[in-house]
Amino acid sequence: MAKLLGAFFYYPPTSKQVTGLIDGLLQLDQLAKWPNQQLVTEQCQILSTQIQHAEIEYQFSLLFEGQGIMSAPPWGSVYLDQEKLLMGESQERYREFLQQQGLTLDTGMNEPEDQFGLMLMAYAILLEKQQFAAAQQLMTEYLLNWAPMYLDCLKQNQVSLFYQALAIIAEQYLQMV
C-alpha cells in the first residue's frame, strides 16, 4: 500500500508509472482495516470522480512540480529545516540513512530524496527486503515528524479535490504504520 500511495504522490497521474495502478488506488478502502473506514471509502469515491478530470495533470504540476508558489511542498526539509529550503540538513541526514540501508532511489528525476511519495516508496522497499527495523526508523525519524504538516497543507489546497482526498487517505494510512 505504501508503494501505491507513494507512486501517486510522486508521479503525474497520467504517467505510465501510475496508469496501471489506478484501479488499486480506487479500491484502497477494501485493502485494509482503516482507522476510519467510512472516511476512506468516501475519499476513494472522490478519487474516482476526479481521476479523469481534464485538469489533473496541471493540478499535479502546481502541487508537486512548483509552478509559482507551492501551497504544499512535498519535501521534508521545507518543514524541518530552519531556513525552510530544499536540500537542507534533514534531507542530508535522510540521504545518509538511505545509503546505510543500501538504497539508491534513482527515478531518473533530479529531486531530493525527502519527497513524500519517494519516502513512502522507500519504506515499501525496506518492508519488501524485510528490513523492518530500518522501515520503522524511516517512519519515526524521517517521515512522521513532518508528514502531518505536509498532509494538512495538501488537504487545504485550493487546486485539487483529488489530492485533498489522497492526503486524507495517506493520513489514515500513516495511522496504521
Automatic annotation (TrEMBL):
Classification via Pfam families: Nitrate_red_del
Sorted UniProt keywords: Chaperone
InterPro entries membership: DmsD-type, DMSO/NO3_reduct_chaperone, TorD-like_sf, TorD/DmsD_chaperones
Superkingdom as given in the UniProt entry: Bacteria
Keyword Nucleus: no
SUPFAM superfamilies membership: TorD-like
Protein's UniProt keywords contain Cell membrane: no
Protein name as it appears in the record: Molecular chaperone
Natural source organism: Gilliamella apis
